[in-house]
Amino acid sequence: MNQSTNLSRTNTVPIGDEHIGLERTNGGHVLPGVMQGAYSYEREERGSRLLDYWRIVSKHLWLILGISVLIPTLVAIYVVRKPDIYESQARIQVDLENANPLLGGMSKNSNVILNSETNDPAYFNTQLQILTGPGLLRSVAKTLDLEHNPDFLRETSSKNKSTWLDIRGMLGLKAKTPPQSSTPDVLPQSSSSSSSTAAQEQAEAERLSDYVDDLQETLKVEPVKETRLTVRETRLIDISYRHSDPHLAAKIVNTVAQIFIDQNREKKTETSGSTGTYLLKRIAELQSNIRGKEEELINYGKNHQILSLDANQNTVVERLEGLSKQLLIAENERKMAESAYKASLQPGAAEALAEGGINEKDVPSATRITTDSELKLAELKQKRAELLVENTEKWPAVREIDKQIAAIEKVMGDARRRATGVVTTNLATRYRQALATEELLRKAYDQQRAETLTQNEAAVSYRIIQQEIETNKTLLDGLLQRTKENDVVMAGTPNNIRVVDYAIAGKKPVAPRRVLTVALAFLFSIGCGIGLAFIIEYLDDSVRSMEDVENLLRLPAIALIPQVGTVKPKRNLAASGKKGALVSSNGSGSGEVLLTNIEKRSPVAEAYRHLRTSILLSTAGRPPRTLLITSSVPSEGKTTTAVNTAISLAQTGAKVLIIDADMRRPRLHSIFNLSNDSGLSALLSREASEAEIISAIQHDEASGLSVLTAGPVPPNPAELVGSEQMLKLLSVVADNFAHIVVDSPPIAAFTDGVLIAAIVDAVLLVVHSGKSSRKIVGRARKLLQDVGARIIGVVLNKVPSTGSNSYYYSGYYQHYHYGAETTADQQ
């Protein structure tokens, strides 16, 4: 009990020159050493920073490598998919505006306007602005018809579809567009014609604005500088443009140069230019009017079946003329047939017609009979006359002839009567046929005449349209002739701007520079990865390394306990077939890593031996007898550390007692598989004697430890540990044991540990590497310092094998492991 005064102190003993401190070797192991003054945290500034930077980079190496691979890969995919870009360049020369020497120093043509300010310093800069102005580029877009050019539209669309716009579209953050007015009117009111023209120009400017913007973004206009002479200014301007189509790029550049020259010439010939503009406009209007009238003429002719107004080609007129001729013939035939028929109805007319007008067409059979009878009658009469010369009329031969003559005459009379009937009938039939033919032709003639009259009425409008077309064509020819004359006038106007070199289609692409882009992306990704690593490190509030403990918490790190399963055993350990068990010494299977169950040459065992050495040499004269092992928050491994520290001290042959002062969550009885019916809570709740205290202590054969369990969970553990009975208990056990290790509740969560820290010789703070918050650990340190606790150091527990702490126990251990066990050790 002679140490009660030491146990009852409330103020910490300052760490001075007389105390034993800790020093770190170059390898990073914590070794005992004599501290000179306060614990030294100063190191060389530059070396410390470089090591810190290297530690951060090594810690986040995979993150940096991942970003360094991801970003260049994405950039490579992007640039590979980008089309090759070609550049075309033209060069123009802009001289001062001088009078035409052919005109004697002044223009004789009133249409030519000469600039008298030939030395205007702003003239050259003005031309540069005109070259990139929307007016000139709008003319380029119209001349090349870029709004209907699929190559240009495809390039413009690909430019507008950027990755950022796609991301914004996916997030619903599309750019706001101003509302479009159906009839925008931003121009001042003026006359109807000028207002209409201005409105058309405004509409055209709005329609071509996107193409003009794209040309302004891509078109590059730069004055040429001469670097070899003192005076670097020149009057040359380079015009360049980039596009995936080299021919289109060259065409755009040449068109820009040509339109620039043309506009400059038009400015010099303002009147001729205005006249030319008016003529071109009128020509376009007339051409459009002529096309419209010709289409109207064709449609009108189709609708009214007018093929041509020429009499030689008009079938309607030709048909009418033919019917008219046929009708006249039919009328004449009808009149003749009517006259003949009416004449045949007169008395004797039929006989006369029969005798005088008989022909084979009218009466073919009668004609043949009469002709034969007359010939035969003539022969008989001649024969009778011959007979009467010698004979009388009563001569039989004469009388026979008379009979024949009478018979012939009778036949002839009958034939004449039949011929007269046939003639009358034929004349009547002919008359009726002529009359019917005339009626039919007259009806067809009347129909054709009506159709011709209708067509003639349509032909009037048809001819009017024709006359309009002919008039417009005549006017168009005149305007074309005047345009040519005006062009001749304008061509004779002097121009101070000319093309020095025309652009040609590029042979080799100038972009994208894929290798350079990927290389820059790689460098950028490395920078991003390192920057992100530093940001993560800055935002990381956990304690991870010895440097964090020493620099941020201002506490000495006296041991690093590796995380079980992360450190590879030595080859000679693996060959021996021995393994550490994650079970308690008594086989309870609580999952605690006890020194009794692991290789004594393992990194964990070596770490606890370092911890034991540091504890034994932590104070001057003698090691601390009562040692509190605690943590800031739960689950940091304080109980396991306390158990293994006690076991390590017991391995030196000293009597060691471990007390479970965590009466809120006791665990020692389950680790050692001991009874917890009577323990610390029972001893503190009454005036226990020294014999009762000693009898409550249990012994674990496997570890050689004496254990005072927590006992039943009390309702007021803080009052118990802060009572006088706790001081008495520590005094009693201090007389019987060389080392007393106390396991208490977390400092930041409960006051039990703070109360105990005030009455023990030393405090050891356990910190979970990578989990414990710096602020919470710092708060726990402040709580301990406020009660005067002597903090001998920090145990960095569950340290992973990777990172800045790996070399402290893994690399060093693998390079400087023990040799083969001796026979005695093996036994």
Summarize the structure.
This protein is α/β, with parallel strands linked by helices.
Provide structural commentary.
It is built from 29 helices and 14 strands. The protein is of the alpha/beta class. Helix content is 55%, strand content 10%. α12 runs antiparallel to α15. It folds into 4 domains: 316 residues, P-loop containing nucleotide triphosphate hydrolases (Rossmann fold); 42 residues, no CATH class; 176 residues, Bacterial polysaccharide co-polymerase-like, CATH 3.30.1890; 177 residues. A hairpin with a 4-residue loop joins β10 and β11.
Which properties best describe this structure?
elongated; eight-stranded mixed beta sheet; alpha/beta; Rossmann fold; Bacterial polysaccharide co-polymerase-like; disordered C terminus; 827 residues; 29 helices; four-stranded antiparallel beta sheet
The poorly predicted ranges are 1-43, 99-118, 175-191, 357-366, 566-590, 810-827
Give the class-level CATH name of the largest domain.
Alpha Beta
Helix-residue proportion? 55-70%
The CATH architecture of the largest domain comes to 3-Layer(aba) Sandwich
Please, what is the oligomeric state? single chain
Radius of gyration: 65 Å
Output the strand order for the largest sheet. Answer: 7-14-13-8-12-9-11-10
Q: Taking all residues together, what is the mean pLDDT? A: 77
**Strand-pairing-aware structural class:** alpha/beta
Strand content: 5-15%
What coarse outline follows from CA principal-axis ratios?
elongated
Q: Give a quick account of the main beta sheet: strands, pairing sense, barrel closure.
A: 8 strands, mixed
Number of strands: 14
Count of distinct structural domains: 4
Fourth-level CATH superfamily of the largest domain: P-loop containing nucleotide triphosphate hydrolases
CATH topology of the largest domain: Rossmann fold
First-last Cα distance? 41 Å
